[in-house]
Amino acid sequence: MLILTNPNQTPSKEKYNKLIKMTAGNVELTDEVLYCVGYDVYCSNIVALKEIESKQETIRELKAKVTELSNELKQKSEKLGEMVSDYVTALDEIDELKRENEELKSKLALLKRSKK
Question: Which key words tag this protein in UniProt (predicted)?
């Protein structure tokens, strides 16, 4: 028996109703009935496999994008860490310069008093 393939064909209730009418409600399993049911199962599997492949491709694309964004986030996080470290170092230097400035002001005030 030759099996024709149409992978875009999907099973439907109308096809089964038509098949029941063709067999006049006879529940006997003829070769034609078995063929039609088997063919519909075959076609629905092909359609399902195509959908699965499409979903898997979408998942691969999303995983690649997540990896890309994760790497970008990691780089930006490292850069931010460096900037924070530089900022803290700058604040420490500012505090040190303020202390030195206060010491120099104190010495200057003492020198002015001693000259009077």
Answer: Coiled coil
Backbone φ and ψ of 26, nearest 5°: -65, 130
Q: What is the pLDDT of residue 40?
A: 78
Instruction: In whole angstroms, give the CA distance from residue 52 to residue 40.
Output: 18
Could you read off the pLDDT of 79-105 as tens digits, one per residue? 999 999 999 999 999 999 999 999 999
Residue spans per domain, the chain: 13-115
Separation CA 43–CA 3 (nearest Å): 11
Residue pair 2/35 in contact (Cβ under 8 Å)? The answer is: no
What contacts 19, CB < 8 A, 6 or more positions away? 33, 36
d(CA 74, CA 97): 35
Higher pLDDT pick, 29 / 108: 108
* Whole-structure pTM value: 0.52
